[in-house]
Amino acid sequence: MNAAGPAPAGGDGPVRGPVRPSGLLDVLRVASVVLDTEGRVMLWSPQAEELFGYSAQEALGQYAARIMVHEQHLDLVVKLFADVMRTGRSWAGAFPIRRKDGGTRLVEFRNMRLLDERGEVYALGLAVDQSTVRRLEQDVALSTRIVAQSPIGLAVLDSSLRYVSVNPALEQINGIPAEEHLGRTIREVLPLVDADAIEEAARQVLDTGRPSVERATTGRTPADPDQDHAWSVSLYRLENALGTVLGVAVSVVDITEQHRANLEAETARRRLAVIADASARIGTTLELDRTAGELADVAVPELADAAAVDLLDAVVRGRRSTLGPAEPALIRALAVRSVDASDVLPAADPPGQVTRYAPDRLITQCVRTGLPVMVPQTKDEDLARIARSPEAAEVLARSGVHSYLAVPLIARGEVLGALDLTRTRTPRPFDEDDLLLARELASRAAVQIDNARWYQNARDTALTLQRSLLPSHPPVTGGLEVASRYQPAGATSEVGGDWFDVIPLGDDRTALVVGDVMGSGIPAAATMGRLRTATHTLASLGLDPAVLLDHLDRITCGLDQAIATCVYAVHDPRERQCVIANAGHLPPARVRAGHAPELLDLPTGVPLGVGGVAFSTTVVELAPGDRLVFYTDGLVETRRDPLDERLDQLLTLLDSPGHSLEEVCDLLLRTLHEPDNFDDVALLIARAITPEG
């Protein structure tokens, strides 16, 4: 129940209970005067006291004409009074009256004859100051004209939130005549707008008196039933002069164009945000699969509910691919993402799998033409051209795929593959804005994918070369049992020039070599191969290690400013010793029974390729059972830990008796070499044994 009193029983029925007075009559200040047949005042209202200036005591019993009318109008007034009393016809008009203070005022009169139960006749006069009437008329006329001509839709709802009045502008906005609004609620008139929210706001306005200004709402009306519109709705409580709540005034402004502009601006802002996010997230490494996964991560869920990044298999292998109209496409899946573990994933190709797509498939069309393919509303025949097989098409149908978009990945004029996007949960189909964003993402990501592709191909080539140049040695040679490992750098780093070698010499002697060419990639691997060949040749001459390094130094100086570190050792089982020379390399570790593991104290020397500095040879005891551990810096160096701490950790790991050489190799690599290490590792462990014979 609100301040307006009980609501009508049926909307238009009689009001039950007391109703507060309206303020309109109080604004008019209507004066009431009753005269007898002689024209004497019988009743005199308080408003009459205010209008004429005479108190009731002064006016009662007086001839009204004498106290109310100027002498010059007396005859006219007497005649008019006589006509009303004789004929019973009412008289209305404006007439100047005289106040007690001598002033005059133009007053609107309504005069009529009255009869009481005894048949006696009286005259009733109702009088209002004409300036008050004119002011109220002007206000009403102005309000009516403003409401009628306003381009803003205006309506008044009663306290039951039913339409009381509607202006022409709102008729046009709603597409419904004013008379069809009256007596009905918003929900009844406009079922396709959010009536619940508007009515809830209207109730709060009725209860609190606080306006609700510029509430945005959307929906459809009979004026334009096929298009969504947006409106700004403001609500104000209506009260009369006494504070009685009459209802709610509603103003409605069509802001569809502004709403669409805001949506377009928001779409543009979202597109820029996604592009900025893509610039920061895609291409953080040169790993092909990871780069493809970063693209899929950006696309889901900002652009699609599921995304797949696929490359032509020939492109992955480093070859250009051109498809004819009747040729199938060999597609290698790199990454798949979905908003959740939805049913659409089984229809996607698993990462790493190569699938043959027939010429009529949409992805084949996309990579063959280099043009995007968009299907806003997919049908069964479309799903059959999206999926790799009829079974996969059934999976897509069950998962609710209703919209599809494929954009080519093009870099440096070459089509690499495609970004495939589907929507299942998002109700809105792909549109031109989505296509624009997808093409921008694909364009930016394709360059990063192409870089990763070429880097991976170059890295694979260098790694193949590196591995082909490394020795394949027997586990036992002469007086040594030997184990070795080569571990390439992390996938985001190029292959380096690390190498090791085990070279059998005469009299059961064995040369052990570990080196590291500075630089990376194919040049480093090629330099490593040349130094390894030279080392084999020089080792066959039986040179002292220091002399051998001196020859390698001169060779390295001639290899295009190449620099390398190297440790060269010759083990003699009969003398139970090693002679070792070092060219700027980390010192080997020696492990002996009953002693703590130690780093050999060798003259460091300068790297190969520096030139002009002599090397020295050191003799190291190595009894049967003793071990020598050679390694490159990729095993112990990191970007965050001091080298001394890492070397101490190496010695701690070596202090583990009972492990085989193979187990020690695995332990060191597993513990010390981090997966994302920027450098490769060569590791060689030799244990002295007593040679046969």
Radius of gyration: 50 Å
Question: Treating each run of at least 4 consecutive H or I residues as one helix, how many helices?
Answer: 20
Distance between the terminal alpha carbons, to the nearest Å?
115 Å
As a percent range, the share of helical residues equals 25-40%
The residue-averaged pLDDT reads 85
Largest sheet: 6 strands, antiparallel
**CATH domain fold name of the largest domain:** Phosphatase 2c, domain 1
**CATH 4th-level superfamily of the largest domain:** PPM-type phosphatase domain
Number of strands: 27
Low-confidence regions:
1-17
CATH level-two architecture of the largest domain: 4-Layer Sandwich
Strand order of the largest sheet: 13-12-11-16-15-14
CATH class of the largest domain: Alpha Beta
**How many domain modules?**
4
Structural class: alpha+beta
Question: What portion of the residues fall into strands of 2 or more residues?
Answer: 25-35%
Overall morphology: elongated
